[in-house]
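Working notes for the structural subgroup meeting. M.R. asked for a predicted model of this chain before we commit to crystallization trials. I am recording the input and output together here so anyone reviewing the notebook later can reproduce the run.

Input as submitted:
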Amino acid sequence: MAILNLRIDNMHCGSCVRRVTQTINALPATHAEEVRVGGARITTDAAPEQIQQALTAAGYPAFVESASA
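Returned structure, recorded in token form:
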């Protein structure tokens, strides 16, 4: 599993954090380790592009800041 640190735009409150967490956890083989306003750390077997696409579709554009295996 890879660990990704994401910058996530349009997150402004606790409700946004919950929606982002739900979106991440709905993806196969993906778990939100830490989600906070502006970013997240997740573990995943999914391609980063798949995660970015899901979050962007939910209204929260995401950008990979770092990744490690």
